[in-house]
Amino acid sequence: METPKRKRKVDSNTRRISPNPKSKMKKVKCCPSLFVSSRKPETLNVKKLQRALIHLKKSCPVMANLLDGAEPDFETQVAQKLSLRSNENPFNSLCRSLISQQLSGKAADSIYTKFIRRCGGESNVPTPKQVLKLTTKDLRDCGFSQRKSEYVQSLASFYEENKLSQNKFEKMTDNEIRECLLQVRGIGEWTIHMFLIFSLKRGDVLPVGDLVIRKRFKEEFQPHQKNKKVLPEPVEFIAASDRWKPYRSVASVLLWHSA
Known about the structure:
There is one protein chain. The chain is mainly alpha-helical. The protein contains 14 helices and no strands. Helix 4 packs antiparallel against helix 8 and helix 10 crosses helix 11. The longest helix has 16 residues. The N terminus is likely disordered.
């Protein structure tokens, strides 16, 4: 015999099913891989930046307003922010990112300068092999915390074991790089997003964990929300940012720049 289904309480005035008062709202989650590209890797350059700004202006009214209010030399400033004319060594860039975590720019620069000096002071250092030769005491003397010393040495070991290089990164999609680097202690989504945008110059990355990006997104896309302290969750970026593809990195720099 079939078990009878339990009838849910119906509000007689609205004729809608009343929610169970004991049930809790589930927090909507979205896959972090949505905020990087899985397509064939493309690197930003000055010409693509020009194309990106035209695309953003046509596809998104908010971006169009930000661009209309930008300074005459805005394009040059964005190119400088994206370091389109520089070519920093990826390992060096990742070391710098680990050093910079939760530190002011001045403090991070001081530690990084001492770190470079300890590694030999040459323009192409540090290399993974040089870092692996350093002891924890060497790194602590440069200003590293115990944990960051472990992070940098873990990165150097991982880099060597997996034979990572500029060439190898250039052949990997954003998401492949993300999955690769998440295996390293101390490297999370934010660090990977910064690495993809500023070191590898990838054009379609949206750093949804960045505090400034979240604040600026709320100001521009959710101006009527009453609670000013609650910042948007990653899932809230999806609809608006879909129009920015394949130039979400440039849109992010535009939000940073207008802060």
